[in-house]
Amino acid sequence: MIFSSTTNTSFLIIADSYGKCLSPTVSTPHYSITTYSISGLRWFNPYDDNLNLFALIQTEKFSSLFSTTSNILFLVGINSVRNLPATNVIQQLDQFLHLLFSNYTHLTAGQIIITTCPPCLKISNRYSNISLLQNNIDYYNHLLFSLSSKYKVSVLDLKISFEWLGRDGLHIDYVYREEFSNIILNYINNTNMHQQTSSNVSTRSHYSISKRNRKRNLKIRNLQRNFTLIREISDQWSYYHIKNFLRFNHISFDRLLILSQHTLHLYFNNSPLMQRADQALSINIFNDDTFFHWVRSKP
């Protein structure tokens, strides 16, 4: 029989200003967490190496930090996504992860976690209205899940409400900081418990489960290709608004994707669900008029 280790697991959190919601250090009987927060941090910043995570991980200071653990959570992204197209940011993240695992090979045996970008109401020069900004954030989060499979990293989906944002529309309001912190801590706690449980499972069993899940997911994706609904969509609609609009109209779907050619792809698991959506959603339902009417009626 194999017994799980009682060794205290250490986690390192590298964060932008969202890390200010977390305690610098957390210690429990099962794990310890150290948070290193830098306001304005981006995956890549060509103008300031102090805010450039790609450059920072090559410094002696970060090399020392990474040597203490093989479990790292990155709470980074919003400063990049507010100023660059999602595809560009994902390319930067791809290069960052390649460098990270090349320079710190011990991390392949640990747990690397990347959070999705939370919602944001603070517009930028590139994204001059909230809809365009949120659409870019949603697209980044969608691409992040795809990239995660390439490097076998985990994604923590920060499904928080706009109500949690402070007056600046960017940072977490003081009232919700503890709740935000609990999302991170609970995820790490669950991850740690899962790792301890997994140590009692044989490698072959783990491989078999992963293989079965991959086959199942592939089967579902292939099935959904036959149950796909396509609609034209205006620039105003973001993933956030579409999901709320569909839920309000009781349209059940599995996933959705907005393509650059102003088309929305809705994926369903069976024909009846797709047919019902096809009847309820006219060809031009996702135009500007519907959007503004929806926003005014459902703020």
Short summary:
The chain is of the alpha/beta class. It has helices at 53-56, 60-66, 78-81, 86-103, 130-151, 177-198, 203-224, 239-248, 271-280, 288-297, and strands at 9-15, 25-27, 31-37, 71-75, 111-115, 154-156, 228-232, 255-259, 263-267. Strands 2-3-1-4-5-6 form a 6-stranded mixed β-sheet, sandwiched between helices. A 3-stranded antiparallel β-sheet has the order 7-9-8, covered by helices on one side.
Task: Describe the protein's architecture and organization.
- With 299 residues, the protein is an alpha/beta fold.
- It folds into 2 domains: 9-200, SGNH hydrolase (Rossmann fold); 223-297, 2-Layer Sandwich (Alpha-Beta Plaits).
- It is 43% helix and 15% strand.
- The protein is built from 10 helices and 9 strands.
- A 6-stranded mixed beta sheet has the order 2-3-1-4-5-6, with helices on both faces. A 3-stranded antiparallel beta sheet has the order 7-9-8, with helices on one face.
- Helix 4 (86-103) packs parallel to helix 5 (130-151).
- It is globular, with a radius of gyration of 21 Å.
- It starts with 8 loop residues before the first strand and ends with a helix.
- Residues 1-6 and 197-207 have low confidence and may be disordered.
- This is SGNH hydrolase-type esterase domain-containing protein.
- InterPro entries: SGNH_hydro_sf.
Rg over CA atoms, rounded to whole Å, is 21 Å
CATH architecture of the largest domain: 3-Layer(aba) Sandwich
Strand order of the largest sheet: 2-3-1-4-5-6
Distance between the termini: 57 Å
- Overall structural class, as computed from helix and strand content, comes to alpha/beta
Order of helices and strands: EEEHHEHHEHEHHEHEEHH
Q: CATH H-level name of the largest domain... which superfamily? A: SGNH hydrolase
Q: Treating each run of at least 4 consecutive H or I residues as one helix, how many helices?
A: 10
Estimated helix fraction? 40-55%
Could you tell me the strand content as a percent range? Answer: 15-25%
CATH topology of the largest domain: Rossmann fold
CATH class of the largest domain: Alpha Beta
Average pLDDT metric: 84
Shape: globular
